[in-house]
Amino acid sequence: MQQIYTRIPDAVSVLTYTRDTPDSTQPLKGLTSIPASSLTWSEDGSLLAVISQQGVTIREGEDLAQAALLNLPNIVAIAFSPKNTYLTTFQRPQPGAGNAEKNLKVWRWREQSVAMQLFQKSYSRDMWPAISFTGDERSALHLVTNAVNIYDPANFPAGVQKKLGLKAVGGFAVSQNACAIHLAAYVPEGKGAPGFVGVWPLDQLSKAESPPPVARRSFFRATYAKLTWNAPGTGLLALTATDTDATNQSYYGEQKLSFLSADGANDCLVQLKEGPVHDVQWTRAGDYFAVVAGFMPAKTTLFSASCKPVFDLGSGPHNLVRWSPQGRFLTLAGFGNLPGDVLFFDRKSDGRCKQMGAVRAENGVSLEWSPDGRHLLTATTAPRLRVDNGYQMYRYTGEKLLDERVPVLLEAGWRPAPQDGFPDLPQSPRSNGSTGSSAPPAVPQRAAGYVAPHLRGSGASAGGKFSMAHDSESSRGRLGLDLHHQRLVPGAAPPESKTSSKNAKRRGRAKGKSGEDVDGNEAETAQHNAKPAPSEEVQSGMASMSVTGGEQGNGQDAAADSAKRLRNLQKKLRQVQQLKEKQGKGETLEPEQVAKIGSEAGLQAEIEELGG
């Protein structure tokens, strides 16, 4: 049994859905008439807290019976601790009250007692909850000026037990793994100094001076950051951003994505398509993360937990990525000012992704997977849009199961469930509805693009080289470890470098001249230009040249170019061998150096081709 909750002005409803069939005739008892301006579920879905004018009402998740009522005025936000022991509330401060009013409270809500209370001037959705608990609830962390204070929830009155002293600290994130918990903190750039992200083991902090971080990465052009740990607490993603773009290419500023390992062994800039970073998300298990980045059409790339590119999902009009709770299915969507195309993928055990279906959810605002990982819920909500409000439910293959319209819908989503509440099931053999077809639904046909008046009727393409739906130079497939994340096809030659391309053009011109000098026949010239391998030029090119001095000079130029190219390739191969020796000694290499080692096979093949 799964449940969908909806919130309209001043009321909340919860509906139960089973076997893809909505049972809207039996909403859960008494909940549809409850006034609520906001609602929050606990992480496991066992508790529901709603905010109204009377205060905060907490209800049991199964039968929605009232468990507690906290009479608090002007409540703005609430949050449960990981094990539901504590409830954090923020009240809008009264004008002129100053910091004497303790408006940030931590409650032992079952006893309706306040465990700790502090003053906080303002509320930020990006920084909520203002007090973060570790997964075992043994530590509670609070950001203050120039420090992150750490409390013992079992003894809040004792005050600060540990702290991370960090001047101008702007944010933090704590890993939720049971052991070896790490704290990540961010300091924005200022007064000419670069900003940075650092990682500290929580058990090494105390009230004394803070130790140096075990991992650190610095960067310029970053005024704020979003820090996201994976579930095991081994990898951290830092999405840094600034409101201005130095290149004047993006109205939305500039974003960069960095990766740091908790042990400090690896920190790097995640190599993405040029342009903004639209969205990034870890799987629940933390073994992969997916990134949507770049100017439209944006590219989506799948990375492993060690930040190695695994699969290229191609380009398209997308700015959202969402994993199913089991990490098996993945969906891409383009909401906001994009047309609403939604793609469904099945991730295989080796990282390959296979498309299962596609739909168009027009005017979409939110998108969320169900706890069983078999259904997707999209919604059009106010105040983002005040027309066509409602929610839709889809099967993981793209088949629409439900389409409900609501005059004014403020929120819609799934009731959470425990992580082990539903099994990880593969795609069904006949998963496309009653037809039994194994082919995914066709991508909706898009409207024709704009054509300038002077081009109408001429058959000219409306979009030229640019298409919001697809990048002609992009294709789906597995990724190697080369620097530019080009797709490597088994058995294919390595990508040609700029130098080899220039030399090939030069050799082509030389061969073209020699063909014309021999007999002036264009067909003969084309035959000379079509010689397949540079090795034939080196071994038999000189022998095939005739008696004229011009032909001999052209042949010498071609041979000299090939020899120069061969020396350069051999130099690069020696550098690769040196890097491999450093890697064998345990030295840490930069991502560019690792990519250079990955090009060894291509270098050897080209050297052999040139007769080296």
From TrEMBL:
SUPFAM superfamilies referenced in this protein's UniProt entry, alphabetically: DPP6 N-terminal domain-like
Region (Disordered): 415-444, 487-601
GO biological process annotation, one example: regulation of translation
Ranges of compositional bias, category Basic residues: 503-512, 565-574
Biased composition (Basic and acidic residues): 579-588
A family per Pfam: eIF2A
Annotated keywords: Initiation factor, Protein biosynthesis, Repeat, Translation regulation, WD repeat
GO molecular function, one term: translation initiation factor activity
Domain Translation initiation factor beta propellor-like: 217-409
Gene Ontology, cellular component aspect: cytosolic small ribosomal subunit
Comp. bias intervals (Polar residues): 428-438, 537-549
Family: Belongs to the WD repeat EIF2A family.
Function: Functions in the early steps of protein synthesis of a small number of specific mRNAs. Acts by directing the binding of methionyl-tRNAi to 40S ribosomal subunits. In contrast to the eIF-2 complex, it binds methionyl-tRNAi to 40S subunits in a codon-dependent manner, whereas the eIF-2 complex binds methionyl-tRNAi to 40S subunits in a GTP-dependent manner.
The protein's name in its UniProt record: Eukaryotic translation initiation factor 2A
Organism the protein comes from: Coccomyxa viridis
